[in-house]
Design goal:
386 residues, alpha+beta, Beta-lactamase, 7-stranded antiparallel β-sheet, 4-stranded antiparallel β-sheet, hydrolase, hydrolase activity, Serine hydrolase domain-containing protein
Length: 386
């Protein structure tokens, strides 16, 4: 009864997710190494031209700082060639504030999966999930693989919405995510349809937990956060103090500057100094444009509510690959890629323009699609003489 009442209380009293959810949920520490902080030197301040903002199909030219203030943005950083060239905070937030990243967390999980695969802790992208999680043999397909989970093509049932009986709510507010995982069920062939589904992240978390013998936040701290030069310790929200399972899909908490450091780690092909933290091959593989061989059985994409996740994946310029979103730049140019969360949380990486943009906000704001603005800013910053 206590568990049920607590779940209902979370749904009603906490209502929708927000960037301060680290103040609500219990959490586990993600430790940094204070003696190994990656410096973020401040470069020449930018003199940006007005930017194009597309909203409800209409384009306007706006001063960036004014638009950010009106859009509910809490923090906005631009790093160009490893230097901070633009940094603004609003709404009572500062550089020291911890922020819940929501689904940006998924891309952090992708990095951890790449490390576990390289180390041989996980058996391989095309290994059957049931080989590691036989307790799910009566509900999920034997054909379901790690690759399907990473590509959001698992074929698992997922009911979206904000009501307490939706899967969105059950996963976000559950007090026992391992128990919730027993409710996942295959309803269509794995690899056939793209469908954004948070059960995929629970499965990846359970795989990592069983394979490493430790909580995912502890593994992340050892393999990424501590060696990558984070300035401050972070944390990972968990379902409950009793269960202690990390909220894989949405619960990582850190400062905007440290999220920018994670973006730089990817921009530098997983390397910090003379140490390879994330395998370079995985950085390339997880963010590059998907090829036919990887998704040969994908026939269509399912759509989802705003922001237009499914529509982006099915567009000529967009794609989704191993828990990263992609933005095609042309047939002979490296694509941009980004981690994205609810309310417009972003880590945007442009290898072509050596730029990382971090945006966290209280709401999405009056803009149809933030990555379009990030791409324009990346191009403007990298012009000769800028």
């Amino acid at each position: 009864m206590y568990t049920t009442l607590s779940y209902v209380y979370r749904c009603i009293a906490w209502n929708l997710p927000n960037l301060d959810d680290h103040q609500r949920f219990p959490k586990l520490p993600v430790l940094n190494n204070p003696g190994l902080v990656m410096p973020l030197p401040v470069g020449q301040p930018l003199d940006l031209s007005p930017v194009s903002i597309l909203y409800e199909g209409k384009t306007s030219r706006q001063v960036l700082e004014r638009f950010l203030q009106q859009s509910g943005t809490a923090s906005f950083l631009i790093l160009h060639r490893n230097e901070v060239v633009y940094e603004k905070y609003a709404g009572g937030y500062t550089a020291d504030n911890i922020i819940t990243s929501l689904s940006v967390s998924k891309s952090l999980v992708s990095a951890l999966v790449g490390i576990a695969l390289e180390e041989g802790i996980l058996p391989g992208l095309d290994s059957s999930i049931l080989e590691q999680l036989p307790e799910l043999s009566t509900t999920i397909s034997s054909k379901l693989t790690i690759r399907h989970l990473l590509g959001m093509s698992s074929g698992l049932h997922y009911y979206e919405g904000v009501s307490p009986w939706s899967d969105d709510a059950r996963i976000y507010y559950s007090l026992n995510l391992r128990k919730q995982l027993l409710n996942c069920e295959t309803i269509e062939s794995p690899g056939k349809y793209y469908h954004y589904n948070n059960y995929n992240l629970l499965l990846l978390g359970r795989l990592l937990e069983k394979a490493t013998g430790m909580a995912v936040p502890t593994y992340f701290s050892q393999k990424i956060w501590s060696p990558m030069g984070a300035e401050q310790p972070a944390s990972w929200n968990i379902d409950s103090a009793r269960s202690g399972f990390a909220k894989m899909e949405s619960g990582f908490n850190a400062t905007a500057r440290d999220f920018a450091r994670f973006g730089l780690l990817y921009l530098n092909k997983g390397r910090f100094g003379n140490r390879q933290i994330i395998p370079e091959a995985w950085v390339n593989q997880s963010t590059s444009q998907p090829n036919f061989e990887e998704f040969a059985d994908s026939t269509r994409y399912m759509t989802r509510r705003n922001p237009p996740l499914g529509q982006w994946v099915d567009s000529p310029v967009g794609y989704y690959k191993y828990l990263w979103w992609g933005y095609r730049n042309g047939p002979h140019q490296d694509p941009d890629y980004f981690a994205m969360g609810n309310l417009g949380q972003f880590i945007y990486c442009s290898p072509l323009h050596q730029t990382v943009i971090v945006r966290f906000g209280k709401k999405w704001g009056n803009i149809d699609w933030w990555p379009t603005l990030f791409r324009e800013l990346s191009q403007q910053i990298d012009k000769p003489g800028s």
